[in-house]
## 1
Amino acid sequence: MTTNPDSQHRSANQLGFSRRGVLATAVAAVLAHADAYAAESFAPASRRLASNRPPIEQRRFTSESVEATIEKVRADIKDPELAWLFENCYPNTLDTTVEYDEVDGKPDAFIITGDIDAMWLRDSTAQVWPYLPHIGSDEKLKRFVKGLIHRQNLCILLDPYANAFYKDATRPSHWASDRPEPIAGVHERKWEIDSLCYPIRLANEYYRLTNDASIFDDEWERAMRLAVHTLRVEQRKDGTTPYRFVRETTRMLDAPPFDGTGRPIAPVGLIVSAFRPSDDSSLYPYLIPSNLFAVQSLRQLATIFTEHIDDVEFANECTSFADEVHGAIQQHAVKSHLDFGTIYAYEVDGFGNAAFWDDANVPSLMSLAYLGIHDPDDPIYVRTRKFLLSPSNPYYLTGTAASGQASPHTGKNRIWPMGIILRALSSTSKEEIYECLTMLRNTHAGTGFMHEAFNKDDPRDYTRDWFAWANTLFGELIVKVHAEHPDLLARSFDD
């Protein structure tokens, strides 16, 4: 029997309300504020910029260290609207998306993406990432992140090909008509390399910051071995795969061609990703940012299995695998562009065909510096980034409202705030960061939150009222600017 969704949305904080109710309240509040903002655009800032956070008693999870950061950073932001955006966005994951429990003394954290009542392995890691600097001194937050690592292990062991899950392992999939049908507990079964990389990234960073090796237990080890096995299988060296994905849809990007197996590839050592981080099917099956991410993740696993699990054989397997994929990237994905020299292609097929663009989601080519895969001044990254921010990139849009990276996921005319944020996070130019902050400050359509995407000429035409990852990532940017370029936050921002 399927659990009543409202009955399962309880936290250790004993808040006593349903996530469905939070969603309705949050969306209504955002829309109401947008209307009020438009009607009172000339009202005093103190009146029209009231906090959009849920009341304290309705917040899903609270952290004293996060709250202290909000107070400290907000006080140093001169522009009232930018300060208001930061206060709304930075804690949005904790405020609205968390379900935290202690089960037999073991922490368990489940994090929805926002307006979709499911947890993505990618999004959940990215949503808590900006809070990780606090876990060394905040025991409550530390246990929360430890609980997320545990929950991600369970998800991988349930289905390593799935990208999104339910907390209730008996709940049928919303996409039950997909073929093959997802098993109970799986929201969606889109194979994306990064879905297995992000849990590795989280566990590695958790240990680096806390020195708590207790996360590397039998459950985690089994999940990681299954992850590496799955990545190996998806090299498809014998031309076969157990994976396919078919969906009845009129949206061409919702499923790979050829009965859900994807376009032809030459088996060159790269890993197939049937879908991009945007959840769109890939054009050419070798998605390069995700393959680079896999190289990084495999090297992190090699270190952990050497130093903490004492399995040198598996560690060597991870290192050899990483070396193979890295070599294949250099041979098949580092391409000479007519105008920009040697840069990364976004997708390739191993036959010599390549797509030159980027997607505003993460991992992306733009995000390679943010993820720590390349230094911001690495020559190939600098050249690739220059291409990405040029008219030669078909998904770099310039409009009357803003300029920024887009995604096939949201069409030809919408810019992603996430793309602008990542541009700022990877920039070494203060003026470029200021330009990005200005665009973000001026394109939230009066809602006080980031969105998935907005029309390049009209920010009021946007998608997703509640997208916690984008909100929290914006908060991460402001915290970084506060630490590295506090003078930027003392400047004014023109409408």
## 2
Amino acid sequence: MTSAQVDKHHDDGNGAVQAATTDDGEGYQRGLGARQIQMIAIGGAIGTGLFLGAGKGISKAGPSLILAYAIAGFVIFLIMRALGELLLYRPVSGSFSDYAREFIGPFAGFVTGWTYWLFWVVTGITEVTAAAAYMTYWWDIPQWLSALIFTVVLYGANLISVKLFGELEFWFSMVKVTAIIGMILICAGILTLGFSDAGDTASVSHLWSHGGFFPNGIGETLMTLQMVMFAFLAVELVGVTAGESKDPKTVLPKAINTVPWRIAVFYVGALIMILSVVPWTHFQPGVSPFVAAFEKMGLAAGAGIVNFVVLTAALSSCNSGMYSTGRMLRDLALNSQGPKLFTRLTSSGTPLVGTTFSAALMMVGVWINYQWPGKAFDYVVSFATISGMWAWIVILICQIRYRAKADRGELPRSEFRAPGAPYTSWFALAFIAMVIVMMGIDKDARISLYCAPLWGLILGVAYWVLKRRNPEAAAFRKR
């Protein structure tokens, strides 16, 4: 597709504008610069899975959780390089959905688009509700009021311009990055200088002196891989920004190539430092390892700091959900796989109707969570994990098929080829398959797999009805 943005629009009489027809069919403004794309990529790899979820992983696997993050991080890098090859071949904002449509088939594009949309709606519901709960740490205000304010503010920011979305995500990510780097430096200081309450006992030997590096056996370490992979969900969001990057051919490869050091520093490095200062036996499920480490160090302000960081992580996720859902709905609509009204853009190039529809569902979800915070809602939330992994599977399959066509000369070669592909992509697919098997074994994660067939059946029936009413839904139009 061409990288030129659409300059001409026409008013539909309701304040929204319709993008003029162009060769690329997108109409977005390329308002995301290198600084913002880099931080979006960094922030996508850091979330509540690390700040809160790592406590459960440490209690299960001990220090070997570090190895689990390193291995999973390597697989994530393979997935991102596969995505990068596709993005440089054809950078579109529909991303995985559009590639699925081209390399697997229209039905695959339909399933991928609607599944990724639902993933972010559900994630947005849970994260904005979590953010509201975090606010009660400082102020005794109704949770629904905080949720309402957060949703409205993020919705408004996403409608103003993609640049404002990028700025919000930049600063959200900056808070998370600063917190982790600060923790690493504090731990390094304790290990070398011996200050704080933990100074007398801190030692790198904690990584192997309390039952060994695999205190509960390799099997328990393998079982944590599902939690580890969940922590990386949303790292692929950088692919959705492709259609709005100022210079995608330069910016996107740089952002993707930083994945290894981001994981090495923010996950592996942070856990090595924390588990060297505080033995793994001091951590418990449901308690942030950062909070536990601060308490061991005797730093009273630690809990408040971590609460603020987790708040920004939740808002960052909700902000990303607002951004991606509107783009996914518009991509589906442009391919006759969703209502045509989702194609409308504002004068600033943002998908008005799609973002509004998604934000409204997020608000309904907050209300449901407030009224009935029981098992039914938990089942819906659990679906987010398997639906997020579906995007990774689609990316890998599309890259394998694209590479085969490019090698045969049927398509132009990407300027950013994935090293070792297609073998590395097959390896990543096998790894994801193993993680899904682990989910089936774990009774706490098994519910995710129950939800997937039901959602697949719903999409199958919807696609059959759509195809009968509109044959264009089964046609792929390269943009």
## 3
Amino acid sequence: MAKVTHSQKSCTVNPLKMSQPIGSALAFMGLKNCMPLFHGSQGCTSFGLVLFVRHFKEAIPLQTTAMSEVATVLGGLENVEQAILTIANRQRPAIIGISSTGVTETKGDDVDGYLKLIREKHPELDHIKLVYVSTPDFKDAFQDGWAKTVTRMVEQLVEPVPADTVRDPAKVNLLPGAHVTPGDLDELRDLIEAFGLEPVILPDLSGSLDGHVPDDFTPTTIGGISLEEIAGMGRSRHTIAVGEQMRPAAEALEKKTGVPYTLFDRLTGLEANDGFIALLAGLSGRPVPNKIKRQRSQLVDAMLDGHFHFGGKRIAIGAEPDLLWTLSGWFHEMGAEVAAAVTTTESPLLERIATDEVLLGDLEDLEARAAGCDLLVTHSHGRQAAERLAIPFYRIGIPMFDRLGAAHQTIVGYRGTRDLIFEIGNLFIASGHEPTPETWAYPEETGHVGEKTLAAH
């Protein structure tokens, strides 16, 4: 069991953590025809916009209430009202997702009250959904903002259904965590559909940020789950949540609609995916398709091939709690040791990680603990640390701005896990050294074969 500690430094150096509003905005981007809106200064929105553009390499819809110093002190009702009216008239979204920021949370703006006043004053907005989420960036982190936003979507957009409602036996709700990429979602959709089931994914980044070229330009999100699909989630037969962060959303959906849920804290690794496939087979009443059985066999073979290169390796990981849990558990299964683990926010999973200590800190803390490790694993801001430590570096998470294909990185399912073994195994191979006779020599105290002995023979 790991000991969870907090960094005692006076300031953050080379941040690992990203803020709640960023995670909240990303969740809103998984909705069709949505416009995310930051209630805060222009700088907050500009920072998030640049981060997402560099990571996804796509046009990102994100607006701001543009709070000035005076507006922040006096209250932001006029700014919120003007922003909503402008977006409604120009972008014509189906939904506006509003996320608070540190400056407006410190002031204490009553945004829920603002929205009631705006609704009463502007009945022409009745056809647009307005969802507000409190996401102060002076507390919690990226995955917290995502989780709170998805829970809020469930509470406000899913229609309650009677207890005796007839469920659609083919429909399955999927609630992915913030660490699940569009590529991961495509893989999970393929697995679910292989059993004849229809996934309803909230939020669905695979439809909006998967890097496709749209037929027509739209100023709002270009894909994702529709409001009609969200409203009907109560008629699905089951909910699958991926990541401990999604437990509140799954519980809220069950409480509101009666749809039972199963939570998988990770879907990377053999045992975790066996449980996932067994659930799908049970829900569908169908045998496991041969192609999935073959994928499992390929993963087992990859584990056999790769464990020679993973065994005994020391790994340093910096990531959000659910991603840290996913990677550390998988490395442990492959025979590696998680020697350093740094994360961003609290989670009940942290104490269960197979390492001595999990630190809530920054990339400076990770670099200090990664000395002597064989691999550094974090997002792109860790690249300089890996250079200074002269160890291989594997990029994962957000932001990943110095490599192509971040949105399509896939580590879930049998295939995703198999490919992850190959990618990281190849890093170990590339950083290794050619063996020499001295490499295989025994220590002197055990009677090793030295040069003199070899010469005598």
